Amino acid sequence: MTSGKTTHLRRIRYGLWFLVTIAALVIGGAYFVRTIGFREPPSVTTGEAAIRSELSLIDHNGNRVTEADFLGRWQLVFFGFTYCPDVCPTTLAYMANVLDRFGGEVEQVAPIFITVDPSRDTPEVMAEYVQAFHPKLVGLTGSEAAVAAAAQSFRVYYEKMEEETAPDGYLMAHSGHIYLMTPEGRFEDVFREADQSAEDMATDVLARMNGK
Ligand code: NI
């Protein structure tokens, strides 16, 4: 049965190629998520409906807060850490600039900074940090698990990375998007500091707040 044997060998060969292809796709996919997922908004890949505001954290005054405390206001939410050398201070200064352009309507906005480095970013550290940017900015921290849960609900990526030159020998890699959530706590949009001027972002957000 020569032909049967050949078919059998061919099947094994196809089977092996199939496995190699699957392995390549898995490895390539993981690499893609690791490198691209870092910068791109999660909304692009997972769908807006997947992003929710769910949190149970401690604010910079030491009060326990949940997403319910921010309902009724438009929320600008940014994840980062106070030891961040670049993205966080730049983005928070930008957010402060946006807030200053809201005029009286700033009362309808809750700007929120959630740390992804809670072991160093205690409420006291957060208080000093957020107040340096804007009096309205609320800093949130909590246990590692509580922070991870909040990041998961917003589909925010972050990861501890060893870095010899950084304080304590590490940095927190994290996605750099500002989330705009509606007063009902639903996802509205994401913004990046580099993508538009503070004036343009303020105009865009105000138009949505006023239903335009
Ligand atoms: Ni940062």
What can you see in these coordinates?
The chain is of the alpha+beta class and 212 residues long. The protein has one domain (3-209): Glutaredoxin, CATH 3.40.30. Helix content is 41%, strand content 21%. The chain contains six helices and nine strands. A seven-stranded mixed beta sheet has the order 2-1-5-4-3-8-9. A two-stranded antiparallel ribbon has the order 6-7. Helix 3 packs across helix 6 (198-209). Mean pLDDT is 87; it is low at 34-46. Bound molecules: nickel (II) ion (NI). Nickel (II) ion binds at residues 80-81, 84, 87-88, 174.
User: What fraction of residues sit in β-strands?
Assistant: 15-25%
Bound molecules: nickel (II) ion
CATH class category label? Alpha Beta
- How many separate domains make up the residues? 1
SSE succession: HHEEEHEHEHEEEEH
Low-confidence stretches are 34-46
CATH topology grouping: Glutaredoxin
What is the CATH superfamily classification? Answer: Glutaredoxin
